[in-house]
Amino acid sequence: MKVATIAITVAALAVGLAVAEPEAPLADIPLPAPRMAGGKPLLTVLKERQSSRAFSAKPLPVQLVSDLLWAAFGINRTDSGKRTAPSARNWQEIDVYVVLAEGAYRYDAKAGILRAVVKGDLRALTGGQPFVATAPLNLVFVADPARMKGVGPADISMYAGADAAFISQNVYLFCASEGLGTVVRGLVDREPLAKALNLPESLRVVFAQTVGYPEE
Ligand SMILES: Cc1cc2nc3c(=O)[nH]c(=O)nc-3n(C[C@H](O)[C@H](O)[C@H](O)COP(=O)(O)O)c2cc1C
Predict the structure, then answer these.
(1) What is the Cα–Cα distance from 120 to 102, expressed in whole angstroms?
(2) Cα–ligand 1 centroid distance for 50 (angstroms)
(3) Would you call 76 helix, strand, or coil by DSSP?
C-alpha cells in the first residue's frame, strides 16, 4: 500500500471513529401488570400439557411475557411476597433469567421489570438443541445457594432442582393454557452459559426452558 493510500485510510478510520455512535447499553424492560385471571380450565390445561421442540421465531408480545413470568414465579401474595411456585423454606433461591434475541435479562418479580443483564443474542448458548437458537425466548433457572440457609452442600442440588421444577411446571401449564410450545431442558452446557450471563461462580444454572409459538 502506498504512503498516500495509508494516510487516507488512517484519516477515514479516524473520521469513522470520531463520528461512530457509542453502542447503546441494553435497557431494562418495564413489564405491564400481569393478567391474573382467565386462561383455560385447569383440567383442560393438564390434558394439553406437553413438551414441544418446534418453534416459530415470532417474538412474544411483552404482555404475554409478563403473564408468563408471573405464572412462572411471580408474587401472588403481596403481604408476604410469596410466589406462584413453592420453594423449600421459602428461600426463593431461583432467579429466572430471560434470554431474548436482543439480550439477556433477570426477572425482578417485585418491581415487575426485566433487568438488563447482557446485550446480544445468547439464545444458542442456552442449550445444545438447535431450536434454542431461533425460538423467541429461553428461560434459565439460576439458583443462589447463599439464600439456602441451613442446608448441607449435598442437598443443595436436590432442593434447587425441585424448586426450579415447580417453576418449570407453572410455565408448562401457562403454555398449555395459551397455546404456546415449551420444553424444559437439562441438556445445558452450564459453564459457558454462566460465563456469558456474567454469573458469579457462586450461582448455579439449574435448567433452561424454551418458550414460543408452535412452528407453523
Ligand atoms: C428435568 C428434566 C430435564 C429435561 N431435559 C430435556 C432436554 O434437555 N431436552 C429435551 O428436549 N427435553 C428435556 N426434557 C423433557 C422430557 O424429555 C419430556 O418431559 C419427556 O419426554 C415427556 O414428554 P412430555 O413432557 O411431553 O410429557 C426434560 C424433562 C425434565 C423433567
Answers:
(1) 5
(2) 9
(3) strand
Q: State which ligand 1 atom lies nearest to the alpha carbon of 50.
A: 26
Q: Quote the CA–CA distance of 126 and 121 in Å, as a whole number.
A: 10
The burial class, CB within 10 Å (0-12 / 13-18 / 19+), for 175 is buried
Q: How many angstroms is it from 172 CA to the middle of ligand 1?
A: 11
132 touches 213 (CB < 8 A): no
Query: What are the residues whose beta carbons fall under 8 Å from the beta carbon of 86, sequence distance 6 or more?
Result: 163, 166
Task: Give the distance (Å) from ligand 1 centre to CA of residue 99.
Answer: 19
* Cα–Cα distance measured from residue 163 to residue 88, given in angstroms and rounded to the nearest whole number: 7
Any ligand 1 atom below 6 A from CB of 61 = no
For residue range 73-98, list pLDDT tens digits in order. Answer: 999 999 999 999 999 999 999 999 99
Give residue-wise pLDDT tens across range 5-48. Answer: 444 444 444 444 456 677 889 999 999 999 999 999 999 999 99
